[in-house]
Every structure is written in structure tokens, then in C-alpha cells.
Amino acid sequence: MNERPNTNGAQHSIRRHLAIGVTTVVLLVGGVGGWAVTTELSGAVIAPGLLVVESDVKKVQHPTGGVVGELRVRDGDRVKAGQHVAAIESLNVINEVEAPAAGRITEILIQEGQPVEYGQSLMTIESTEGA
Asked: What distance in Å separates the CA atoms of residue 105 and residue 73, rounded to the nearest whole number?
């Protein structure tokens, strides 16, 4: 007798597994792709400095941290708003730190070559603006 093996069950099983696999891949790629399209990712932002106001005394802070490359002022120096007072090196980029206001440097809290952390105060300025 010439009996053929029943391949309908095997083909049905293969098709079912293939459909499940393709559906899983489409859902995974669609889900990750949809997330990637709708999610906003923040990049690195290089900023000149952060200002924390305490009466007429202003603290100069650096928002990302790094290593103090150069101090361009000393205690008692008078500075103008926007004047570069220090350079911070982070990730092979030199970030200029600007004075947030005109005034007199009352205290320098860092030294050249010193590592500084996120939000660390670098110096204080007694503001002459509005006086």
C-alpha cells in the first residue's frame, strides 16, 4: 500500500508557530519603535553656570562638574556680569563659568586642578547690582 504520512497536522503546527513568532517580533519592534519616537531624550547641556541668590551674595556654581582648569579672579576682585571667572574641564570640553552679577569676589572655594561636583559652589560674589 502506498500510504502517505499525514502532513496537514505538521504544516498547521508550523504555520501556527510561525504566526506567533512573527506577531511577537512585530509587537516588540512596534513597541520599542513607538517608545523611541514618542520619548524625549535629553542630551548634554553646556551652561555657563548656575545662580543661587542669597540676598546680595551670589554663589557661582557649575551645573555639570569637572576639573577646575583655570581661575581668572582672586578674592576681592571686582567683576562684571557675564565676565569669565573660571574654566572647568569636563569630558574634554572646557566650559567657561561666568559671573552671574556685577560685584566683588568675597570668597573663592576652589583651586586650580581641583575636581568639582554637580552643583558645587565655586565662589561667592557680593553683588553691586541694584545697590
From this structure: 8
Question: DSSP states of 29-63 as a string?
Answer: HHHHHHHHHHPPPP-----S-EEEEETTEEEEE-S
DSSP state, residue 119 = T
CATH number at residue 104: 2.40.50.100
Question: Interior CA angle at 125 toward 119 and 129, to 5°?
Answer: 120
Coil, helix or strand for 20?
helix
Q: What is the reported pLDDT for 54? A: 53
pTM greater than the 0.70 cutoff: no
Structural domain containing residue 26: 1-41
